[in-house]
Input
Amino acid sequence: MVLLQIAEPGQSDAPHERRLAVGIDLGTTNSLVATVRSGLAVVLNDELGRSLLPSVVRYTSDGCATGYEAQTYQASDPRNTICSVKRFMGRGLHDIAHRESLPYKFEDAPGMVRINTAAGIKTPVEVSADVLHALRARAEAALGGELVGAVITVPAYFDDAQRQATKDAAKLAGINVLRLLNEPTAAAIAYGLDNGSEGVFAVYDLGGGTFDISILKLSRGVFEVLSTGGDSALGGDDFDQRIFCWILEAAKLKPLSHEDSRLLLNRAREGKEYLTFHGVAPITARLSSGEVVDLKLTTEIFTEITRTLVAKTMQAVRKALRDAGLATDEVKGVIMVGGATRMPQIQRAVGEFFKQEPLNNLDPDKVVALGAAKQANLLAGNRTGDDWLLLDVIPLSLGLEMMGGLVEKIVPRNSTIPIARAQDFTTFRDGQTALAVHVVQGEREIVSDCRSLACFELRGIPPMVAGAARIRVTFQVDADGLLSVSAREQSSGVEASVVVKPSYGLSDDEIASMLKGSLEHSRDDAFRRALKEAQVEAQRLIEAVQSALKSDGELLSTEERVRVETAIAALQAAALAENRRQITVTMDALDAETKAFAARRMDKNIRRALAGRSIDELAGEDQS
Amino acid sequence: MAVTLTERAAKHVSKYIDKRGRGIGLRLGVRTSGCSGMAYKLEFADDVAADDIQFESHGVRVLIDPKSLPYLDGTELDYAREGLNEGFKFNNPNVKDACGCGESFNV
Output
């Protein structure tokens, strides 16, 4: 028996044609699935009424268990019980922080790290797929039918590789991805539309393993992400880790087994949660050695040992605001997302910074899933009457390598997606028939300081003089943030393209240091850019003169020719010496030396053009 | 002639209308379609049509067009939970047979 939901006026679905769609918050620590029922977004609970599914999978020789069932084995079977796998998505082994303190048997592999379990070698994509599979089963039981698709949320900082890995995991779990949505944007959907708000909002999202800050502008139903920032390796888990370290120190414990470490980490997490509503948390545990831990963690100690973590988040908040060009008093509200934002010291720090109470009226654990459900409902074609558009941004600029190792930015950082940008380029040398297109990501002016994303060649350009070919390079970033680049020579139509799927992505530290680098080195970069440009210009001039000498060398006397060649040699030396002023001076000198030569070549070309034509013909042309 | 809501159904309808922020009640009806002849219509109502027949049940206004009413007379709309699934259910005495899934029916 099908149970019906209330539709919008005139929009009852025909039987068997209801389009079931869900929003999935695939979290580091916990995951949720939500849907829209009778116009209202709700989180779907499991049989026991629990909304969260711990993002934990335990592998045994005869299969796998997920969620709470898997979590109970964290202490007894840590090696086969994989948690916080989101941190490994699209990551290589060397990208993983604290890997020596993790209980897993990692295997290095090209592209993504792998984990050796009792059920064989698993990639993070497969582990995530098992979590998604459990959510899909829950959703299909709750909705009484097959899903047409899901919106899955990802941290705003996820790069191409991480997004692609998430999509692959969904595919493996048999879920059609309607769209990947940035988590803070999903939170804003949950809040913004329900409350009909307008203005600039900050989304402070401290989850289990990631921190995101986003500055959003909501106006007349349009969401625009003004800037994003954060730290993809900072979350509630790190607060647990700090308490764990404090326990080790306070109880003077020797190095522990994995089982004991896991036990104490659980005690640390319980203590943290207890402190949200109490001033002192008791921390007691009996270790496998028989040793007993009995400590009292006060709010003051907790605040003190996590001060640097909180400060780190506030630093990212400041930067995101600066990127958006806004002052704190221009922010109308602060949306709190993620269970970790329940910690009183976080609430206090955010409140003090923005000089206002953060918004808390939706459950911070559920808000992302609820927003994703609304988006999924819309994308599945179940219109609710509210027309709204969603705009997201790219976190780092995308560009091309130019002659001399310079970066030409095509899509600037914080551009809204989906986006397509095209720019025309030309050939550098006479008769050039191929062009290498090197796609880079980053804020710096020099290629070697940015991250290389992809490289391809456009071949078959018809031979032409330098600068005559017109090559249009188009960058396209789709709604999921995935990039494709194509190049097309306009006159011949030859084309080449690439979809950027890097083997693995940028680590957060890399993004952070690249952003920081662009600020610190901006003057340095400008200087180097000017130098490189001068060098490229010098090279172009030298080639032009040499080509002229080859074709029309007979127009010069031997003495003149020697002078021109001396000037060329001087310019070549100056270009190598990396002295911009010297390059400019010697370029002017070569220019002056070849003036007469240029005039004579011009005369010769005109004579050649006129040769063999009568005065009458020319006069006739004049009259026509 | 009457169509009613169970108290549980009425509670849910009121909550949904409240969260939706607008709407005067619930519109029920039947349409010819589906694998077994007819299908139910269950929608929010934003306004009343001239020939609508109105009922009131547990504080919820129910609107039905006159053509649909004969097929729905005596129906009680319930809100049910089956395992993880939950939603509205038509307990309609006029139904002779329904398709396996219950989404469409015959009178």
DSSP finds two helices and nine strands in chain B. The longest strand of chain B covers residues 25-32. The mean pLDDT of chain B is 84.
